[in-house]
Amino acid sequence: MTTPSVAVLGAGMVGVATALELQRRGMAVTLLDRRAPGLETSYGNAGVIARSSLMPFNHPRLWGTLPGLLGNRGTGFRYSPAFVASNLRWALGFVGNARRSVFRETTAALDSLIRLSTDEHRRLLAEVNALDRLRDNGWLFLYRHAASFEAPGARLGRETMAQYGIATQVLQAGELQALEPVLNPLFAKALWIKDSYSVNSPGAVVRAYADAFAARGGRVQTTELRTVQQTGDGLWTVIDSSGTGQAYDRVVVALGPWSRQFLAGLGVEIPMGFERGYHLHYAEGAGARSLQRPIYDTAGGYVLSPMEHGMRLSTGVELNDCDAPMKPVQLELAEAAARQALPLGPRLDQPLWMGRRPTLPDSRPVIGEMPGRPGLWLAFGHQHIGFSTGPGTAALLGALMQGDTRLPLDPHPFRASRFL
């Protein structure tokens, strides 16, 4: 039997994990991207692998917060009115999916995907001798005021985590101080989400997976991708910017936020929003103890994660065009808030880094074959949790591609026909 050839387009966490999984299943895989593996959005995230990420931004309590969000002055959320106006299908769909029925389906789907991905991450990290990068001490949601802890959205989050059996612990101010002495006495309460892992360098983890793929015979090509074309014999030709083409039995589009533009070249319209975010690294404050786990300051609108190269400050959401110029206002506000929370040292890196988080109207990724185009497979739209859900996406996609009768999770919530 001929070994199937597969091109995986996109070398972020989703693409690299997919390449590894298809290789494990005996396929001849080529991984293609314009940059080396792990240098785009998968590089700059907070490094959290958290079951709490099953809670989508468009949950049923979103309606009550919309007036404040539309003011466009918050630290955790900013938007471009021009982007929203030109992407109304996505915007209206995103808000419209903040219904309890959709929320129930999304949380169940994301929980199963995150749980599968966590197991796969642990397996892969052990295989590539990188388990030393993994922390298993959870992460913290911090609340500056008790009223914020009791707000409807925060309550819904705790109720949802309890429903899915996610281990959490409510901490009073003194208990938080004992757990993380580096924090200033600024926070009235905290939620310690124990069913969570984190890594000290997401980009290094992606590179380690990509190196393992290459060491096992996989091909990694750095090239500017232009389009794909299906030939009469059912093969797919991947064409780069030079016009050079290479034929494969199957193609996987895992280009993250650039999947929308790439598929538009095939006449396929994807309702995708771009939740852009920024990060910088900082030295630890003089004489301060290290932060032991990632923290999310719910009022400050940032996540602070201990990384191997310093403390990484990651911002919230900026809705804007994928490649619009950077707007550092969120980073400046987040940095000021973080300096209130703990002794943060000077900035360690320039220039400012930005990532794009591709979000579909129901906050679930597309995982599966393109309707009406056999051999063209899709794996994108993972919003904030591509690092958390990449390996599970790969496991599901591999099982679907090989026609397994037993699948690792229900593929229905991730079907491409939701939007295509």
Q: What is the general shape?
A: globular
Regions with little confidence, pLDDT below 50 for 5+ residues: none
State the share of residues found in helices, binned by percent.
25-40%
> Structural class from helices and strands?
alpha+beta
Q: What's the mean pLDDT score?
A: 95
Distance between termini? 33 Å
Approximately how much beta-strand content do the residues carry? Answer: 25-35%
Rg from Cα: 21 Å
Give the number of helices.
13
The profile of the biggest β sheet is: 11 strands, mixed
Count of distinct strands? 23
Detailed description of the structure:
With 420 residues, the chain is α+β, with helices and mostly antiparallel strands. It has 13 helices and 23 strands. Strands 4, 6, 7, 8, 15, 16, 17, 18, 19, 20 and 21 form an eleven-stranded mixed sheet that branches. The protein has a six-stranded mixed sheet with strand order 10-2-1-14-23-22, with helices on one face. α1 (13-24) runs parallel beside α13 (386-401). The mean pLDDT is 95.
List the helices and strands and how they pair.
Layout: E1 5-9, H1 13-24, E2 28-33, H2 41-44, E3 48-50, H3 62-70, E4 77-79, H4 81-86, H5 88-96, H6 100-127, E5 134-135, E6 139-143, H7 146-149, H8 152-163, E7 168-172, H9 173-179, E8 189-193, E9 196-199, H10 202-215, E10 219-222, E11 225-230, E12 236-240, E13 245-248, E14 250-253, H11 259-264, E15 273-284, E16 295-297, E17 302-307, E18 310-315, E19 317-319, H12 329-341, E20 344-347, E21 353-359, E22 366-369, E23 376-380, H13 386-401
Parallel strand pairs: 1-2, 1-14, 2-10, 4-19, 6-16, 14-23
Antiparallel strand pairs: 3-9, 5-9, 6-8, 7-8, 11-12, 12-13, 15-18, 15-19, 15-20, 15-21, 16-17, 17-18, 22-23
Helix pairs in contact: 1-10, 1-13, 6-13
Protein name: NAD(P)/FAD-dependent oxidoreductase
Domain FAD dependent oxidoreductase: 6-399
GO molecular function: oxidoreductase activity
